Amino acid sequence: EIALTQSPATLSVSPGERATLSCRASQSVITYLAWYQQKPGQAPRLLIYDGSSRTFGTPARFSGSGSGTDFTLTISGVEPEDFAVYYCQQRANRRTFGQGTRLEIK
Amino acid sequence: EVQLVESGGGLVKPGGSLRLSCSASGVSVTSVWMNWVRQAPGKGLEWVGRIKSRTDGGATDYVAHVRGRFIVSRDDSENTLYLQMNDLKTEDTAVYYCFTDDVWDSRRGEKVDYWGRGTLVTVSS
């Protein structure tokens, strides 16, 4: 099974700052990686798929990059509604999720 | 509009069984790969298992520590996905979601996901 390791576990930023979240796979997932946002009591919401493709409803401040084993989700200027938990998910072999990064207000 | 609605959760004793349902509308559970994922209280997401589409053979896959205890199936006539859970353990306590991902939406020109709202399973004596 492919393991995903996210870092950091918690990221504290002020609104307007840039946030950089990382996801590392135990073996190559090519670009079959997605990013989700989850808020309390809600199902996860897809933000990015295939490494860097933003969904229609995802604001342009969110961007994904990477290939192989190392991926990054960047939020160029964090808005108040962005404080949530973010998960990466690999789709190369079955499915695995990372353990999540909590984005909190500094 | 696509909707996935889970049901069947509840309180069960260790060693017991439970069957979860995921009723679909707006999408055929036969034509997409359907998954179950769970989230223990205060924890992250854990993929549990899936069933491939009929055109892809309909095979099932599971995460290692539920293999042999959990079974994913579907009823094409009811357009419903199931998760049969046997020999339940306290560590199976979680909200269980059904979802399908990697679905190409030709109208929007992008891949989409569909998720249910989840159903809570509590395993406790």
Architecture overview:
In chain A, 0% of the residues lie in helices and 50% in strands. Chain A is built from no helices and 11 strands. The mean pLDDT of chain A is 97. In chain A, the strands form 2 sheets. In chain A, strands 2, 4, 5, 6, 9, 10 and 11 form a 7-stranded mixed beta sheet that branches. Chain A has a 4-stranded antiparallel beta sheet with strand order 1-3-8-7, with no helix packed on it. By secondary structure, chain A is mainly β. Chain A has strands at residues 4-7, 10-13, 19-25, 33-38, 45-49, 53-54, 62-67, 70-75, 85-90, 96-97, 101-105. With 125 residues, chain B is mostly beta strands. Helix content of chain B is 0%, strand content 54%. Chain B contains no helices and 11 strands. Chain B starts with a strand and ends with a strand. Chain A binds chain B through residues 1, 34, 36, 38, 43-44, 46, 49-50, 53, 55-56, 85, 87, 89, 91, 94-100, and chain B through 35, 37, 44-47, 50, 61, 63-64, 97, 99, 101-102, 108, 110-113, 115-118.
Poorly predicted regions of chain A:
none
User: Which class of secondary structure composition applies to the elements of chain A?
Assistant: mainly beta
In terms of DSSP E residues, the strand content of chain A is over 45%
For the secondary structure, the number of strands of chain A is: 11
Q: How widely separated are the two ends of chain B?
A: 40 Å
Category from helices, strands and their pairing of chain B: mainly beta
